[in-house]
Amino acid sequence: MRVLFSGRAKQDYLSDALTLLTGWTREGEQIRRTLVLDDTQHAALTERVKVVADALRLRPEISRRAGHTQIRVGHGDGEPLTEGEVLLAARIEDAVRAVTGS
């Protein structure tokens, strides 16, 4: 059975889901996470995220600077966050735990 959400209820639902994702911050219509990882962990995380992102047909931005890995999820072009993008962020959290062992 499918549940239909009105625009307002859908946004509330996504906001509630985002509060459960520790470490993620919202920047307009994108969410972002910065992690301190070594090069090996960054490479492993990137591969895991690619598999999940491909399955969800989404394209997160992953960059590496000065020992920090930054991940951005969302369109950033005025399009609201989708359920799939919030799901991707949750799956990224699973991948972070697998890669870091915590």
TrEMBL record:
Keywords annotated in UniProt: Lyase
Tagged with keyword Kinase: no
Catalysed reactions listed for this entry: (4aS,6R)-4a-hydroxy-L-erythro-5,6,7,8-tetrahydrobiopterin = (6R)-L-erythro-6,7-dihydrobiopterin + H2O
The keyword Repeat is annotated on this UniProt entry: no
Enzyme Commission numbers on file: 4.2.1.96
InterPro entries listed in its UniProt record: PCD_sf, Pterin_deHydtase
Family the entry assigns: Belongs to the pterin-4-alpha-carbinolamine dehydratase family.
Protein name in UniProt: Putative pterin-4-alpha-carbinolamine dehydratase
